[in-house]
Amino acid sequence: METSFAITGKDYIIVAADTTAARSIVKMKTDDDKIKVVSPHLLMSYSGEPGDTIQFSEFVERNLRLFHIRNNYSLRPSAAASWIRRSLAQSLRSRKPYSVNLMLSGYDVTTDTPHLFWIDYLGTMTEVPFGAHGYGSYFALSLLDRYHNPEATLEEGIETLKRCIDEVAKRLIVSPGKYIVKVVDKDGTRVIEI
Amino acid sequence: MIVSKIRQCVHIAAISNRHNNLTVVEKLGRTTIFSPEGKHFEYAMEAISHAGTVLGVLAKDGVVLAAEKKVTGKLLDLSGAKEGGYGGSGEKIFLLNSNVIGGVAGLTADANSLINYARSAAQQHLLAYNEDIPVELLAQRLCDMKQSYTQYGGLRPFGASLLYAGYDQQYQFQLYHSDPSGNYSGWKATCIGANNGTAQSLLKQEYKDDIEVKAAISLVLKTMSKTMDSTTLGSEKLEFAVITLDPETKLPKAKIYRPDEIDELLQAEGLGKKEEDDAMKS
User: Fold this and answer.
1) Rounded to two decimals, what is the model's pTM?
2) What phi and psi values does residue B146 have, to the nearest 5 degrees?
């Protein structure tokens, strides 16, 4: 079942999402990347209705790019998150709303701080030190509550992430097999192996 | 009945005209065709060059704005203006958003409409992005609108120039100027309105790149006192505003001075009315 985590650290955010694409009871794919790089210092991990997720994340990516081309600077994470939340809230009140849950992780280069926003398909948004979506969140949130350290180094952050992944693997009946992990910091975004 | 018949005929004629003759647009919108002299902007710029001076200076840690109010006559009742308007604003300096102050020169009614537009554009940005609008973006919003009046049907352009003094995260403190054609530019120090040439050459001599707000205030008042018609400065002729960063919250703090605060400031700078002046009069 779809699961994603995000953890802020001292000057970075780690984002992890499972890589399974499922339809009904069938696993269709096990290398699906559900963390989109929407701008140089912004990662968006998404889950929800297949199709909606792709459509909406590309819509966000293109709009952020358009903003950059028009104004010659990128939206800061908090501004981008507000815009995305608003788009979802508007969509919710339309004939066919996007059914997408997401977490937006960004590094604000103007203030040199990492920011994580938890957003769901109803247009709920909150800034959090760590977050999770999907069935994995039922296990991971309590763990993160106990072990999260906002001053942690990247290595320590990865350790905490591994705890979450292991716990979900141990307790969830249909746990995902593989995860993709990305990091955003002052140098931009990158994929890391764990 | 006859009238409506005639109207119908005219209507049909207009439609057929559009089909036969492609120059119909030119006939309707005389104002929008290029004339060799560019007369419309001459008129608009003319209106501005007679308006009260507005002066802005960009400092390292803030921006200072001052404006000259033209007192139109002895009989004008100014008793209501004693307190100043919202946040101390009067007729030339306005708060456009919590991070931007605007100074206007030109037709007051046109300027009021622009200010209304600017405030609403700033709030729209706040609604969409939950952050204060960047200063250049606000200037762009207004200029896009001003430009449209140079191109579309039968309307005259705005007869007003604006100075924007503001702060944003990306580019810190900034000072912009926009004119009726929709051009805008960023400045370290600039001046619009009457005597702007004199003021600008004074600023060019006196401006230093690493100037601080305190020195900028003195520079603005000094330049203002030299370019204004009257010999002594006073709150009845002067509007004044400063935007700085609040030392505690690190957020931009716009301060538009109230008349009594302006007089106090002038006294401190040694530019205000002397005590003996009043004594001589009585």
Assistant:
1) 0.83
2) -60, -40
- 3-state secondary structure (DSSP) of residue A13: strand
Count, residues in chain A: 194
| 3-class DSSP assignment, residue B266 | helix
Residue of B nearest to A67 (CA): B137
State which H helix or E strand residue B57 sits in: strand B54-59
pLDDT of residue B230: 73
H/E element, A147: helix A137-147
Q: How far is B126 from chain A (nearest CA, A)?
A: 9
Which runs of consecutive H residues, i.e. helices, occur in chain B?
2-20, 24-28, 39-49, 108-129, 135-148, 196-206, 213-227, 259-269, 275-281
pLDDT of B20: 40
CB atoms within 10 A of CB B25: 12
Does the distance separating the beta carbons of B130 and A75 come in below 8 Å? Answer: no
Q: Indicate the residue of A73, A75, A110 with minimum beta-carbon distance to B129.
A: A75
* Residue that the structure tokens 């906002």 belong to: A150
Q: In Å, how far from its chain's centre is CA B179?
A: 9
- CA-CA distance, A2 to B131, in Å (whole number)? 33
Supply the ipTM of this predicted assembly: 0.87
- In tens, the pLDDT along B148-158 reads 988 876 788 89
Confidence band for B136, pLDDT divided at 50, 70 and 90: very high
Whether the CB-CB separation of A44 and A187 falls below 8 Å is answered with no
Q: How many CB pairs under 8 A join A and B?
A: 25
Indicate yes or no: CB of B131 within 8 angstroms of CB of A78. yes
Q: How many CB atoms lie within 10 A of CB A83?
A: 18
CATH of B42-281, one of 3.60.20.10, 3.40.50.150, 3.40.50.300, 3.30.1330.30: 3.60.20.10
Q: Over the stretch B27-49, which tens digit does the pLDDT of each residue have? A: 444 444 555 556 667 788 888 88
What is the CB-side half-sphere exposure of residue A112 using CA atoms within 13 A? Answer: 1
- Residue A32 near residue A47, CB atoms below 8 Å: no
Q: Tell me what the pLDDT averaged over chain B comes to.
A: 82
For the stretch A19-56, pLDDT in tens is 999 999 999 999 999 999 999 999 999 999 999 999 99
Sign of CA dihedral A7, A119, A100, A88: negative
Beta bridge pairs of residue A117: A104, A127
SS3 B90: coil
